[in-house]
Design goal:
Layout lengths: L6 H16 L4 E9 L2 E8 L37 E3 L4 E4 L15 E2 L4 E7 L2 E6 L4 E6 L6 E2 L4 E5 L1
Antiparallel strand pairs: 1-2, 3-10, 4-6, 4-9, 5-8, 6-7, 8-10
Amino acid sequence: MSKHSTDADVAFIKALAEILNTNELTEISVKRDYAEDDSLDVRVVKQANVVQVAATAAPIAAPSAAAAAPVAANEDPAQHPGALTSPMVGTAYLAAEPGSTPFATVGAQVTEGQTVLIIEAMKTMNHIPAPRAGTIKRILVEDGSAVEFGAPLMIIE
C-alpha cells in the first residue's frame, strides 16, 4: 500500500471499479509504483452469487450436488433468512489447513457459535461462527475463494 493516501489514489480505485462493471469483468489487479519503496497494490473483485472456482496448490474436492445447486435467477442468497454473510473482505477457507476435514459440510448439523469456516484478512485467520444452530443447506463459496463484506457464505436452516 502506498505510504501516502491521495485523492488521486481514490479516483484511481473508483475508475478501476467502474472499468470492472462496464466491461463485465470479475477482477482487476494493478500495482502502481511511485518510488523505490512506495507503491499502491489494488485488487478489485466483484463477488457473484454463484460458486467460484479457485485455483490452489492443493486439489479441491468437488462440491456435492446440494452445494452446487444452481441459484434461481430471482433468488438472492444474501436475503435468505438463514444466510450467513461475510463480516469482512478476505479469503474464505472451509478447513483449518489444506487436506484437513472441513469445518462444516452440506447436511451437517451445527450449533450456535461453532466455527463453520475461516476468513483470512490481512494475514489474520478469523474464525466465523454459526449464528444459530441448524443444518447447513448450501455452501456458497469454494475453499480459497475471495469474499466481500456482506457476501453470502452459506445457508443454515
